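Here's a chain:
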Amino acid sequence: MVYRPDVNRIYATDGSHTEGALRIYDGTTYELIKSLKMLPDAASMDYDPSTHYLYLTNGGDFANLDTRC
């Protein structure tokens, strides 16, 4: 989870193996504001406060992606 005090939002990933999502909650009421569909196994994330970018890893073994080069 990542909390952004500048916008009072909580960002949480759903790292399940069947469905992936990034969920955005209000930081005061914890009400779900938005859910963004991702690939299965959306897991770790990081936030860069200088750019306001949120980085999210997405996919993994359960996404059945071809990772051959």
The mean pLDDT is 82. The first strand starts at residue 2 and ends at 4. Residues 6 and 50 are 12 Å apart (CA to CA). Strands lie at 2-4, 9-14, 20-26, 32-38, 45-48, 53-56.
